[in-house]
Amino acid sequence: MKKIGILHGKERSFPDAFVERVNSKNIEGIVAEPVKIDKVIQGVSSGYAVIIDRISQDVPFYRAFLKNAALCGTAVINNPFWWSADEKFFNNCLSTKINIPVPKTVILPSRELPVDTTGDSFSNLAYPLDWEGIFNYVGFPAYMKPFAGGGWKSVYKLNDQHDFFDKHGETGELVMMLQEEIIFEEYYRCYCIGGKYVRIMPYEPRNVHALRYVADFKPSEEKLQLMTDIVLRINHYLGYDFNTVELALRDGVPYAIDFCNPAPDAERTSVGEENFEWVVETAATFAIEKAQAQIDGADNLTWGEYIKRSAAKQPLF
């Protein structure tokens, strides 16, 4: 019997529906359940053929458990080794090399010194930074956000350089990105599961959280295909099995704004009933595919094109 597990925190609607959906399909030799951990021993199998990870970004113990499980043959969704290395600024950098439009973005050193460092630790850093060059490149209005993490935490909209210095002073030891604001006509949040299943959802980030999926953008077939191609290209290069990509359309051009969401919101009350049904059904279908293809003791992880081409010393495109 191959077990499919889902590792989650306080969320309930998606994990419960996912387990129920997999089991309702009555696939011989496959069963789904919430992951149960009573001990983690080095080099010992977790007992799961597939695990969908919804919480390890917040629980380091779980991330270590998943890496050990993957080493022993579990197909972890998403790859915990890549997720540990991944961050938003690198993703933007990669996008500039694979012809994905992204906002002009720079990374900034933390406002306060990290713990266990002194000014001498930053002898390679110019002081002051070339603020004029940075501001001329990005422009205003702009957004400032952490280079890693998510959930709209510590995100600032900035109107000018005085606003920047005021808000940057609040960021402590966070490493921040300063990013061009894309004034968009349309905005979409796009689920991508398995590197092949895509759902493009109209989304209005300017609304309060509960109403962000209440948007009436109506993309043409041509625009849908363009966005689908971008979503697939991003996820193929990053290697994510389960992710969302946010696209802002300015003058008809889709800009990838936020595309590092390996545990994206799948709450029924947030995404709406139709989108929730698609996520549950598609995640169940893909998890079953992964379980059927899983080989005990082998590497059953998904590795993105960036890693695979780097290992083979091939150009990105």
Keywords for this structure?
10 helices, 33% helix, 317 residues, 3 domains, 12 strands, Rossmann fold, 4-stranded parallel sheet, D-amino Acid Aminotransferase, Chain A, domain 1, alpha/beta, 4-stranded antiparallel sheet, Dna Ligase, domain 1
Strand-helix topology:
Elements: E1 2-7, H1 13-24, E2 30-34, E3 50-53, H2 60-71, E4 75-77, H3 80-85, H4 88-97, E5 105-108, H5 131-138, E6 142-146, E7 156-158, H6 161-168, E8 176-180, E9 186-193, E10 197-202, H7 221-238, E11 242-250, E12 253-258, H8 268-271, H9 273-293, H10 305-311
Parallel strand pairs: 1-2, 1-3, 3-4
Antiparallel strand pairs: 5-8, 6-7, 6-8, 9-10, 9-11, 11-12
Helix pairs in contact: 1-9
Task: Provide an overview of this structure.
The structure is a single chain. The chain has 317 residues and is an alpha/beta fold. The protein has 3 domains: 2-85 and 286-306, Rossmann fold (3-Layer(aba) Sandwich); 87-101 and 182-261, 2-Layer Sandwich (D-amino Acid Aminotransferase, Chain A, domain 1); 104-180, Dna Ligase, domain 1, CATH 3.30.1490. The protein has helices at 13-24, 60-71, 80-85, 88-97, 131-138, 161-168, 221-238, 268-271, 273-293, 305-311; strands at 2-7, 30-34, 50-53, 75-77, 105-108, 142-146, 156-158, 176-180, 186-193, 197-202, 242-250, 253-258. The strands form 3 sheets. A 4-stranded parallel sheet has the order 2-1-3-4, with helices on both faces. The chain has a 4-stranded antiparallel sheet with strand order 5-8-6-7, with helices on both faces. Strands 10-9-11-12 form a 4-stranded antiparallel sheet. Helix 1 (13-24) packs across helix 9.
